[in-house]
Design brief:
mainly beta; Porin; ten-stranded antiparallel beta sheet; two-stranded antiparallel ribbon; 2 helices; 12 strands
Length: 241
């Protein structure tokens, strides 16, 4: 896994190259955008082999839940600096959280009730991205591609009832792991003007690749990792100044 320091150095080098290649006469325009999106996590077959959600579904006494239910809203804001007509730098922050109910697939309590848990994931991605806008202007439709990195503080929790496989007893507990992951980030999107060159709408699909370390069995989790990878479809309102 590439370290945070390596990603920061790569991003700094990319910014330096772009700045050197940007004419001094290029017009600089700043903007802010705020919006909402939807995070789409990786499915079972494409997740990290050590992912704890995969382990929960594959255990000798597996849990029953749907990974796709971790699909949820993302709220975000971003500050942009456009240098000329084709290059834009962005720095932003987002917030994602979701809780998915789960039960044991083959086991129930003595009274016949489900042995249930809540699986919760939270991410607060802090992103830096460079976008290339090959054609168009603030008053026309502007498609773009982009790339950068995201620093992702995360927290994963399993809370509720669990089965001790040594004696099949049921107990109540809460297991939590947190950390910070660094993810490469790729984007494809477009800016759409609204009544001139000051206001606009943006639509963007971005994808991140990241995993966090849960601590595995020592922290009460069946998997050593939590896969944070996935795509996000964002919609935002943009204001230039």
């Amino acid at each position: 896994m590439i370290s945070m320091r390596s990603w920061v150095r790569t991003a700094a080098f990319t910014v330096a190259v772009v700045l050197i290649g940007t004419p001094a006469s290029a017009q600089i325009v700043q903007s802010v955008q705020v919006g909402i999106g939807a995070f789409y996590p990786r499915g079972f077959d494409s997740r990290d082999v050590d992912d704890t959600l995969v382990a929960n579904l594959s255990a000798a006494e597996p849990l029953q839940f749907d990974i796709s239910r971790f699909r949820s809203a993302v709220y975000f804001g971003e500050w942009n600096i456009d240098m000329g007509s084709h290059i834009s730098f962005g720095a932003g922050i987002g917030y994602y959280t979701d809780t998915v109910p789960s039960v044991y697939r083959n086991l129930v309590n003595e009274d016949g009730s489900e042995i249930s848990q809540d699986l919760s994931l939270r991410m607060v991605p802090i992103t830096a991205i460079v976008r290339f806008l090959p054609f168009g202007s603030p008053t026309t439709f502007q498609p773009y591609i982009g790339g950068g990195f995201s620093i992702i503080p995360w927290r994963y929790t399993e809370a509720g009832q669990f089965v001790d496989t040594a004696d099949n007893s049921v107990f109540t507990d809460r297991f939590t792991s947190s950390g910070t992951a660094v993810a490469p980030l790729f984007a494809l999107g477009a800016r759409i003007p609204v009544g001139g060159d000051v206001y606009g709408l943006t639509m963007e699909w971005r994808y991140q690749f990241a995993t966090g370390n849960t601590g595995g069995l020592s922290n009460g989790f069946l998997g050593d990792k939590i896969d944070l990878s996935g795509g996000t479809l964002n919609f935002a309102f943009l204001v230039r100044f």
